[in-house]
Amino acid sequence: MDYDKNDEVYSKVVRAGKRTYFFDVKSTKGRDLYITMTESKKTFIDGREKYQKHKIFLYKEDFQKFSDGLSDVIEKIAELNSSGEYKTETYSGTEPIEEVSFEDL
Q1: Which pLDDT belongs to residue 89?
Q2: Is the pLDDT confidence value at 3 over 80?
Q3: pTM recorded for the entire structure
Q4: Shortest CA distance to 10 belongs to which of 41, 33, 38, 39?
Q5: Is 95 exposed, middle or buried (0-12, 13-18, 19+ CB in 10 A)?
Q6: Which domains, and CATH codes, for the chain?
Q7: Whole-number Cα distances in Å, 94 to 76, 78, 82
Q8: Are 10 and 25 in contact (CB under 8 A)?
Q9: Burial letters 48-69, b for 16+ CB under 10 A, else e
Q10: CB contact set of 78 (below 8 Å; sequence gap of 6+)
Q11: Across 1-105, where does the E strand assignment appear?
Q12: Does the CA dihedral 69-74-75-77 come out positive or negative?
C-alpha cells in the first residue's frame, strides 16, 4: 500500500450525545503512525447549528504513556464509583476494564 503524507490508515467514530469523538490513525511520509483525537460538539449560535472542534495529536513515543494514564484514570473512576461517594448515570464501575495497547501500531 502506498501512503501519502498524513494518510489516514484507520478511523473510529464514537457518538456520545451532543459530542462526537474521532480516533484516527494516520501515517507520515516516513510511514510512522500517529493518532489524532478530535472532539466535535454541536452548539447553536444565533439559532444556527455550529460545531466546536478540539484536536489532540498523539505520537508513537507517547502511546504507552497515554494508554497507561488513561487506564489509570478509568480504574480510579471505577474505584471511586464503587465507594458510593460518587455516582455517574452511564458508568457504574462494574463493567470490566479493557486494557488499551498501542503496541501493534
Answers
A1: 63
A2: no
A3: 0.69
A4: 33
A5: exposed
A6: 7-82 (3.10.450.700)
A7: 12, 7, 8
A8: yes
A9: eeeeeeeeeebeeeebeebbee
A10: 91, 93, 94, 97
A11: 7-16, 19-27, 33-45, 48-59
A12: positive
Number of residues assigned to the chain = 105
Rounded Cα distance between 90 and 97, Å, is: 15
Contact 33, 105 (CB under 8 A): yes
Residue 94 has pLDDT above 90, yes or no: no
3-class secondary-structure state, position 14: strand
Instruction: Tell me the pLDDT band of 105, cut-offs 50, 70 and 90.
Output: very low
Cα 90 to Cα 87: distance, rounded to the nearest angstrom: 9
Which grid coordinates belong to 23? 480516533
| Residues 22-80 pLDDT 10s | 999 999 999 999 999 999 998 888 888 888 999 999 999 999 999 999 999 999 999 99
